[in-house]
Design goal:
By secondary structure, the chain is an alpha+beta fold. About 25% of the residues lie in helices and about 25% in strands. The protein has helices at about 15-25, 35-50, 60-65, 75-80, 80-90, 265-280, and strands at about 25-30, 95-105, 115, 130-135, 150, 160-165, 175-180, 185-190, 195-200, 205-210, 215-225, 240-245, 250-255.
Amino acid sequence: MQGALELVDGRLTQTQSKQYWDDGYLFPIPAVSAQQAADWRAALEQAEKDWLDNGLPRPLMTYKRVNAQLVMPLAHEIGTHPAILDAVEGVLGPDILLYSVEFMTKEAHSKNVVTMHQDLAYWGYGESDGILTAWLALSPATKQSGCMDFVKGSHKSPIIPHKDTFSETNLLSRGQEIQVDVAEEDKVCGELQPGQISLHHGLMIHGSGPNVSDDRRIGAVIRYLSPHVVKPNGFRDYGFPARGDCDTGNYDLTQAPNGWFNPADLDVYETVRAEQAKVMMAGATGNAEMYS
């Protein structure tokens, strides 16, 4: 496993920032302590017990996989953690909008995979440089547990055509997969230890294999964007002002959740979900919904 990068006062060096732009990804970045990651994992797993059958309007898995930061204080805490924002600032600059947080889990010995894809293929932002994903390991993300694989430099390509598979073992909303073959030798294994993060560009071709280990592979997937990025075609979109000046008029600014699954927050969640689905699920077959 690759040794963690050495930051300066918790921030990326110019060399590390350049490496991100050259490669399209950067890892492993030491964001929080292993103990903090363990505490967050424990909080998530307690929430899974407390809220699984607690009368929520939608299945708990839906809230974990789409905009968890709107209804789960834990997700908001992770997405706005200063150490993670410090690393993100080295790429996006001082103004940072928290776009979404989701918890992506592969159970031990599961066949679930994430097919090779580009995030920006479905987000409605075109080929923007102002969007990235931070992936935080809450448990070991190794080759055995199904860590992410990256294709170095692929963020310099335009959006590649994708197809929807809606496979039961695919963790993506549409089972989307790029229509090019990626050779195994072209994949860079993005292993992370608990508390470490990776950053990757929205055009990066990436995916992950099954979890053949004895532990759950749990990651917090955090999307950030520059509030200066404008979503084309007049669609509304939302984000939380995490750092700097986010009041650009390009987004409806959200608030921190008022507790776990607060009724008012659940209403906001549905509004945001409906607006984003107009773009993210456009052209999908049947009655497909985002992680319904």
